[in-house]
Amino acid sequence: MNWKTYYRDEMTQPATKAYLEGLFDSFHEDREMNVLVRRGAILSFPHTAAHYIGPLQARVVSGLYRTGIKRVIALGVLHTSVLSAPYDEDYRTAIDSERSPSERLRAYALLRGGFVPKVHLIETAFGKIPCGGIADDQTEAVRIDRMGVLNNEFSLDSFFSLMSLYARMHGISPITVSPLYIGMTRDPVSGAFAAADDIVAFLRSVRDPDTAIVTTGDIVHYGTAYTPVEKMLDKKEEDLEPFFRGECERIISLAIRKQDLAGAFRDSNEILRSDQRYILPVIAKYLGSNAAFRKLSFSLSDYSQILGTARPCVVASALVAYDPAA
What is the 3-state secondary structure (H, E, C) of the chain? Predict the structure, then answer.
């Protein structure tokens, strides 16, 4: 599946545009979202199909514009499943425990830290929006993508489209966005999260009071297209959502409240199959030990028809507020 093309085609359908415009028309006031944005919460939204992400992303986008934010730093997922050659092989080498430590660390160095696109404008389904560069040189923490690592990446595409659509609907200039795609933050040999520390230091150096940080993540992937047969759960379909809601609560709590980054990474990877597993350590370290989180919305979205596979095949569409003001 070419997800970048799939989601772009979906977003450009007239019915999708009308649906999103209707959502924006319904979000006139949202005190909870206003408070979260103003006190610096990191809002996390999904990047699933349009009718799944619509109410969640529209709520965030409306809040960002309503509160007068001038710039949004968006932490994107670097999907390892869509990396182009040779970086797909580098990732497999980095996580392969059968390879030598030196081989794994060489591969890890290529995908470590954050990546930003080398563009000044971002093309969306609803026009262009300004892209404010936050990295002007190659550093260990954050690199301008001169290698094509981001060629197939799609995790922020829908968010940028909604940012553009809101501005067009209201006849205002779009907020400047600064995408930062998070690569590997866990050393595959030592298990250390020094790369997350480096990204946190970078974020603190570029954030100001007029800047919001948001992120994206599909925090559960489960079922026929995602889970090995031997790891499928002995649960009825209607029991999956409460089970994964509880597991998300537990695993996010490991990172945010207990700062157990190793445990959270392990369970995010093995139980949730979360594509936010490399971003969560950055969020936890950025917000610090007094942080909290709230699941504002959580549901499992059916992907069986999209992928042409048997049920169950689900992806979580969740809106989570990572809150520094606990």
Answer: CCHHHHHHHHHCCHHHHHHHHHHHHHCCCCHHHHHHHHCCCEEEECCCCHHHHHHHHHHHHHHHHHCCCCEEEEEEECCHHHCCCCHHHHHHHHHCCCCCHHHHHHHHHHHECEEECCCCEEEECCEEEEECCCCCCCCCCEEECCCCCCCCCCCCHHHHHHHHHHHHHHCCCCCEEEEEEECECCCCCCCCCHHHHHHHHHHHHHCCCCEEEEEECCCCEEECCCCCHHHCCCCCHHHHHHHHHHHHHHHHHHHHCCCCHHHHHHHHHHHHCCCCCCCHHHHHHHHCCCCEEEEEEEEEEECHHHHCCCCCEEEEEEEEEEECCC
Distance CA 119, CA 125 (A): 17
User: pLDDT tens for residues 18-32?
Assistant: 999 999 999 888 999
Q: Which residues pair with 299 in a beta bridge?
A: 317
Choose among 60, 78, 77: nearest CA to 69: 60
Q: How confident is the model at residue 140 (pLDDT cuts 50, 70, 90)?
A: confident
> What residue spans define the domains of the chain?
3-84+112-323
In the chain, the amino acid numbered 3 is W
**C-alpha to C-alpha distance for 222 and 257, rounded to whole angstroms:** 25
Cα gap 1→212, rounded to integer Å: 32
Which among 218, 79, 72, 44 is positioned nearest to 153, based on CA atoms?
Answer: 79
**What architecture is domain 3-84+112-323?**
3-Layer(aba) Sandwich (3.40)
**What residues form DSSP beta bridges with 298?**
318
What CA–CA distance (Å, rounded) separates 214 from 64? 10
CA atoms within 13 A on the CB side of 95: 13
Q: What is the pTM of this model?
A: 0.97
